[in-house]
Specification:
This is PilZ domain-containing protein. The chain is mainly β. It is built from one helix and seven strands, in the order βββββββα.
């Protein structure tokens, strides 16, 4: 059964690497993200319906790398417009607090905030 997803996601002009949590091998790059899902850009197609245990490594204010571990299920995978790359859509259920913080931080950073006018 094909499921069309229409969730607002924020595009990331600079990509974050996504890793397999247990092997620590890179799986691809984060293309966009929301609280419910993400787009992964990889060099291989991924198994639709499979559950993946993933990790993001993000720099902290202390200069150290911080890990955000989460589980995601691949909903679809298809060839990207760029030859040799694939786009895969993931749903994320029960994201950890750190994941939620990352999505909110990215949303604030990449969103347009109109200036308040003085009266």
């Amino acid at each position: 059964m094909k499921q069309n997803r229409h969730i607002e996601r924020h595009q990331l002009p600079y990509f974050l690497k996504v890793f397999n949590r247990f092997t620590d091998r890179p799986m691809g790059y984060l293309g966009n993200i929301s609280l419910d899902g993400m787009l992964l850009i990889s060099q291989l197609p991924l198994l639709v319906g499979a559950k993946f245990e993933l990790r993001l490594k993000v720099p902290g204010q202390d200069g150290q790398l911080h890990f955000i571990d989460f589980d995601a299920s691949c909903q679809w995978s298809r060839e990207d417009v760029t030859p040799g790359y694939y786009d895969s859509g993931f749903s994320i259920s029960a994201p950890p607090h750190e994941f939620t913080e990352l999505v909110e931080s990215l949303r604030n950073y990449f969103s347009f905030h109109p200036m308040q006018q003085s009266v």
